[in-house]
Batch of 2 targets.
Target 1
Amino acid sequence: MNPFEYAPALESTSIVTIKDRYGLFINGKFVAPKSGKYFPTINPSTEKKLSEIALASTADVDLAVKAARVAYAKVWSKMPAAERGKYLFRIARILQERSREFAVLETLDNGKPIRESRDTDIPLAAAHFFYHAGWADKLQYSGNGSGPKPYGVVGQIIPWNFPMLMLAWKIAPALATGNTVVLKPAETTSLTALLFAEICQQAGLPNGVINIITGEGATGAELVNHPGIDKVAFTGSTEVGKLIATSIAGSKKAATLELGGKAANIIYDDAAIDEAVEGIVNGIFFNQGHVCCAGSRLLVQESIQDEVLTKLKERMALIRLGNPLDKNTDIGAINSAAQLAKIKELSAAGDAEGAERWSPACNIPADGYWFPPTIFTGVSQTHRIAREEIFGPVLSILTFRTPQEAVEKANNTPYGLSAGIWTEKGSKILWTASKLRAGVIWANTFNKFDPASPFGGYKESGWGREGGKHGLSAYLKASN
Amino acid sequence: MERIDVLKTYKLFIGGAFPRSESGRVYAVKDFKGKHLANTCQASRKDLRDAVVSARSAFPGWSGATAYNRGQILYRMAEILEGRTDQFIAEISALEGANPKAAALQVEESIDLLIWYAGWSDKISALDGSTNSVSGPFYNFTIPEPIGVVAVFAAAKPSLLNLVGAMASVITSGNTAVMVASEKFPLPAISFAECMATSDLPAGVVNILTGVSSELAPWAASHMDIDAIDAAGLSPKVLKEAQIAGVGNLKRIKTPPNIKSPKRILDFMESKTVWHPIGI
């Protein structure tokens, strides 16, 4: 054995108790679904069943929306804003207290490395509640007039890539602005949302202010189309976002949509190359590449492509793929069999269209869903792997000669969520940032998130922002 | 013998020029008593697409101009409009049936609204932008940016005020516009195009079509190179059709309630957030 090899460093799972079966969280209580149906949720790194979860039917969605309506009309909209804020502070603190439990459960249910759930997902989720708690009694200073009003009942649908963090992004601003919530987590990653329901109980949050219903896409559609919903907030694919936009056309429902991306990560020849290589790795391999804003299109200036590629391969050879509970793991499991199939299908399209695939030597565990960190060179703009969101640890590498060409290629996509710029020249950063049609620009860094920093896309990457003052406005009707 | 008036031919305004509709179609515009006033172009889908090409071509230059420059050009439009007040009073009186005093008031309000929006060009980012206190060694700021090409379906009455306010709110930030004038009251829009054509406004920044809104709206909504629509002048039925057709590129379709509001400017902007590490 190599004396410098890492010893296993497994995080204990004893901190988490997973129930055999979970009901729906409606009006402050866990209740059995009217449908009587449950579906399994598994650990994607072992394919073993973790628990089974209620499948909400039309009747269940209706109960949840009605509970949220009553809570809005009778309790939440009448409560002084400062008191509303205190509940959010409580939630933030309890989430911090129980953060390890949440991190372990997130890693078990999602497959992401414990290092990321522990250091990124859960701390940021708590930070989102703390940040928005402080807004609750200051809404008149948010740029929405002297007396902005909440929409009422908000239907929220979140994805499986950052289950708890997306829950926080959705629920914290909704509650701070005085709305009540019916939230549907993704069908493969509902467990942390259901554990969060316990936090709501511990915080003494009034019944019905937050309702959590679990189920499939059809459950989400029921929620979007329910006449008692005043606003829809969705994070997920552009395809589903368009279905939602179509179904609410002609209604009074407001919507925020956080959708897909195909971000360019631009490396200029005057970049700090070693730092840029770290940024490339963080940009595409963070969270197995299950990131809407992932830097999935690398644009390298032609004069430095050999150096960047050599260093990138050296660095990728050090990436550790394996048990997500191991604290040294960099890349965990792909979230589901369906997602793995999609990554494989698009990668095969890369091969078929003539791009060249490379992955470092990598021990793929026998059970579970895995995909090695992968790069494609010789990619042209027309290739599917340069146009479509892969949502996996797969990087398409293209080159450019001039800054103008870099910008043109970066913008050559219907998406516009994020982009990266690497150069040591300040004026070039600002020039490039001003030309890129994307909502979040990371210059000499990548994949940074903060509750104070607005997040969201141009073009087909969605409608509206989440986070910061701008995200708050998405939950308020402005007054004059 | 009484002098015979020289009547104006009302045409479209596309790419800084005044072409007729390629379709050859016109429709009769009547005054408030039903008497014939003029024939005006009934713009076609091709006219709309030509206007979008002009607006898209003008976008890099206009959005890249300094805000100070954009503000001065909007102010210049107000200067030109002020000098042609009588013409607009006559058109508004004839079309809307407003008495000369009310018509004069509308023109004055339109001029003042132009100046109001001219002044916003270099202030809107101070209103809506922010530096964000993130938890880490990063400088992080958010600025509003123009969204791109905006199609505007101006509300009917008061016709000049609605047209001028919608136009100014959309372009002051750097957007370019394809405007569809009120179907019933189109004449002031084309006369106003003459003001714009003599205000140092670069060709294509504002294009004006006259025609049938319900015919043009679905085409605008499904056009993949239009980024947003100001739907203030659309009926609920046409609005819904536009919302469905607009899903193709997730067009931002807004119906701003107030003709004079900074929110109206921000409805047609996108927020961009930039991160950079702080260190030595």
Target 2
Amino acid sequence: MKSVTLKKLFLLHSWVGIVTAILLFIVCFTGALAVLSRPELKIWANPELHQLSTIPSEKVTELINKYHQKVPEAFGENIHVYLPTGHNTHLLTLLFESHDGDENYTEEAAYAYQFDPRNFELVKEYYGTAAYFYEHRKTDAPSFIGHFHADLHLGRPIGLILTGFLGLTLLVSTITGLFIHRQLIKELFTFRRKKELNVVVSDAHKIMGIWGSLFHGIIGLSGAFLGLATIILLPAAAFVSFGGDQAKLVERFTAMPEPIISHNYQATDINAILIDAQTRYPKAKIVDLTVMAHNDTNAEVYLRLLGGDAVASQLLQYHGNGEFSKSMSSLGDIPGPAIKVLTLLFPLHFGNFAGIFVKCIWALLGLTTALLPLSGMMMWLAKRSRGSNPTLSELAYQRWNRAIIGSCGGLVLASAILFPAQVLLNNLVAVELHNQYFGPLFFYSWLAWFLLAIFPLNYHRYLQVTLLVTGVSCMAVLPLNVVLSSSHAFMANNLLVTVVDISFFMIGLFGVYATKRINVKRLALVEPAVHQEVSV
Amino acid sequence: MIFIYLTLACILLIISSLLLRKASTTSCWLSLVIFIAASICFIAVYGSIGGVFVAISGGLLTNLFVAFIFGKTINK
């Protein structure tokens, strides 16, 4: 490749990285956490799910039949059942929905009943718009981080467009990075950890980029698709094929078309359907089911399954009499290889296709995706502040470093604080008030930490304190749980709770240890230049 | 059985990565053979598509860790 082209690619790689580095770190770091949020961390965060085994199908059927009689007829056309598996609601939820609303609402309205999965006691009743119900479901620390990763809590469509474009920039950076680091084979295992910090960061950037390139590329591509599909691709497809009518396009390709209600009674055999699905796919987990035209001869039941032998999630269709109709992808029964590739993008992005082992791999590789823009930015800053003719003054270099620590380190700290806060909320605050705490706690702690960067602090000390507070926050989870909760690492008959509690403690311990190491490194590497620093 | 397969696959991935690090022609080929053996273990647990995805991502992560822990100090 010509040197001019390489130079242009290098410029593109640098500037795309510099402009998006902090945002990319934010999205990728929260993404790495979000991989483990559902169901593992969500189960940990909700004591109702700690002792959970499979919900008996007879009980689900009984509850649907019982509560269907309590709602107006129109609300029996669409019944959504969310099983407490840690993937959506923390309680067993029955949602009776009317698409056309009723006398009080012109939009989609719903009656919702939520039950404690341990004893099936009715915990919460709701009547109102369906959108309000979904928007105000109980959240928890892992779900909050998961939603933040998806749209940065900027709402839709702005948040989705932003994260979608960040996916595209990640893809561009990955591809240009592979071209500009041509000596890939030579650098496959080069890591000079005993050299000065700049060399260590440069080597780390290269090996994370080379070994993670396939992963970064796939995450960038799938992230761009997930962010932009509903906002840009769907309207574009509707414009091309349906004269701009999106509703018509969705109706044509929907996986769950509305059945014609015959008004002839025939009991919908949900119990038999659930048992059949579990027999057909014993390794898969039933996440939710949708019952259409309940107790009508034209009733249809759709079950969404995760895991098992299928990589992507499956949608099973049953007729109301319990007869199995077909298995299809979550996008519907659309033929062609393209749709198969599209359905694979979801599990490849979420890493939820093969249990906890794969999730750990995804989370670790996701952390390298987050560290890449950060190390790239450090290299860019170091290059401009060194040499005989530096373009960045020492003061500006320190300001940049403080800004990076305040924004990126502040995010890590704000995320870490949410977990001990979750333990405190579970034990000291009423459940219905939990949603009010996560947003202010997360954003104000992040903002406060970022504002510290304005002061002329020694940035090594700033990083050290950031790591220390983050480490202590993580370490606090285990003792807080032991003191306040009856279901903790040493009491819960749940391996997941034990592993999560101890993992937090170990991660916190590592953070505190890293604090000490930074101190040593600082003295060893930076002491000659210490007289130039502005410090308080 | 799943635990045994996964443990075996992880050990094979580490051996494959260490062999790749040696960078001689023989060790590179041997590394590839061992990586395929690890992939077979993953396929036995997760099925054909899932197993290949896990093998590739696990291989990348193992190589990354080997590079960090046993990183070379000189380019060859």
